[in-house]
Design brief:
Helices cover about 40% and strands about 15% of the residues. With about 210 residues, the protein is an alpha/beta fold. It has a single domain (about 1-210), classed as 3-Layer(aba) Sandwich (Rossmann fold). It has a 7-stranded parallel sheet with strand order 3-2-4-1-5-6-7, with helices on both faces. Strand 2, helix 2 (about 40-50) and strand 3 (about 60-65) form a beta-alpha-beta unit. It starts with a strand and ends with a helix.
Length: about 210
């Protein structure tokens, strides 16, 4: 299973989603490999911290830039789940990754500037599906305000429905300090003390696999 985590704009929390899903699936006993296909190397840095502190369960991590399709296909023969983090822009890594992936999670913040990128993102996905028609595409709202009086989350959910190719996930990832706190520790929030963040990732992991 190859899960690609991407977006058309930087900063929505792609790396956060990728690393936390990886930890959750590994905790379930699955053999997981993370692929860092972003030159910023956020995943690789976090993984190095995890290894330095001997965190368990262990995760594999591979760095690859450029055309990543063959690398992903090869890794999928050796691991139960391959989770790929690409840069928040239209890139060769994202386009080639889409041709090999089983699932694509498009991460977007509930802001108009982020939502405005979905038109072009949909075009890229449609082009990739000419080569990979079985690609399953889901839209994930991330960094949503936790204040129930702020309607950005609902507004963004309605906006996603304008793009049928991006089937919205019911799970929403909220803006929580826990997601930042775990990074330097080489941990995922399912290994941390924040029950709300932990529940979000567990719910997301289950929904992605449903």
């Amino acid at each position: 299973m190859i899960i690609l985590v991407g977006s058309q704009k930087g900063g929505p929390g792609k790396s956060t989603v990728a690393m936390n899903l990886a930890v959750e699936y590994a905790t379930q006993g699955k053999d997981v490999c993370l692929v860092d296909a972003d030159s910023q190397r956020s995943i690789a840095t976090w993984h190095a911290d995890r290894e330095d502190q001997n965190r368990q369960p262990a995760l594999a991590c591979v760095e690859k830039l450029g055309n990543i399709a063959q690398t992903l296909t090869d890794l999928a023969t050796r691991f139960d789940i391959v989770i790929v983090d690409v840069a928040g822009k239209d890139s060769k890594e994202m386009r080639t990754g889409m041709t090999a992936a089983d699932k694509l999670i498009v991460v977007v913040r509930p802001s108009q500037l982020d939502l405005d990128t979905l038109g072009h993102m949909s075009e890229i996905i449609e082009q990739a599906m000419d080569f990979n028609p079985e690609l399953e595409v889901r839209g994930l709202i991330s960094q949503a305000p936790s204040n129930p009086n702020i309607t950005e989350r609902d507004d963004a959910g309605e906006y996603l429905t304008d793009y049928p190719i991006l089937k919205p996930l019911e799970t929403v990832i909220h803006e929580r300090k826990a997601y930042r706190d775990v990074v330097g520790e080489g941990l995922g929030v399912v290994e941390w003390s924040n029950p709300k963040a932990k529940a979000e990732i567990k719910e997301l992991a289950a929904e992605v696999m449903a």
